[in-house]
Write a structure and sequence with these properties.
Elements: E1 6-10, H1 23-33, H2 41-45, H3 52-59, H4 65-79, H5 92-101, E2 105-109, H6 114-123, E3 132-134, H7 143-154, E4 158-163, H8 166-174, E5 179-182, H9 188-191, E6 197-198, H10 204-210
Parallel strand pairs: 1-2, 1-4, 2-3, 4-5, 5-6
Helix pairs in contact: 1-4, 7-8
């Protein structure tokens, strides 16, 4: 695609993807398999959206780097058997279609690998509704840097970030673009003070248009 006039950038987990439908049970199972106590769903959901370096010490307290690496590999293996449970938030597909109809290009910027983003978008049937993806490249250590790389690459005239965590809001602020907080995601308490917040995906197009 050529230069984008309007770009809307989405976080993935807790914004488009209902991660809890499969990931909570996977982590509980693999924690037990590795000899750790299975944490509560609330504890596991509280780390969604964080960097691997931040959430692994919380999921496997005291584990060394090699154990963490093996744990993540095992989670990815088990994930394949659970992805049939994956689903987007209600109304996400229609919301993305509406944005395209209004001339927006869509992107996903996530603290995840390209493999994970592509796999999940396919599982929740949104692949053909997302124009660009920006994974957490090894060269970057934060969503702020990933978002900057995406914006530098696409050079949109206008851009908006949509997410459900303070990581997303801070990335938008650092890059000088407006932010829409998702109260329906995993950290509604972090989004309560967002200048613009939505309770469901269907409200995103109107919120985005209001920021132009």
């Amino acid at each position: 695609m050529g230069k984008s006039k309007k770009l809307i950038v989405f976080d993935l987990d807790g914004t488009l993807n209902r991660t809890e439908l499969y990931a909570v049970e996977i982590h509980r199972m693999v924690q037990t398999e590795f000899g750790w106590h299975a944490q509560t769903p609330e504890q596991i959901q509280s780390v969604f959206g964080a960097l691997t370096s931040e959430y692994m010490p919380l999921l496997l307290p005291g584990a060394d780097k090699e154990t963490q690496r093996r744990y993540l590999k095992r989670v990815a293996e088990v994930e394949k058997d659970y992805l049939h449970l994956a689903a987007a938030y209600d109304g996400s597909a229609q919301m993305l279609d509406e944005l395209h109809g209004k001339g927006w290009e869509t992107a996903v910027c996530s603290n995840s690998s390209s493999r994970y983003i592509s796999t999940i978008l396919n599982a929740i049937r949104l692949t053909d509704k997302i124009d660009h993806i920006e994974p957490l490249d090894k060269a970057f250590n934060s969503k702020k840097a990933s978002l900057k790389n995406l914006l530098d690459r696409l050079k949109p005239e206008k851009a908006v970030m949509v997410g459900d965590t303070s990581f997303d809001e801070e990335a938008a602020e650092e890059n000088g673009i407006p932010f829409i907080g998702c109260l329906y995601g995993f950290r509604p308490h972090e989004m309560e003070n967002a200048p613009i917040a939505v309770e469901r995906p269907a409200q995103i197009p109107e919120a985005a248009e209001s920021l132009l």
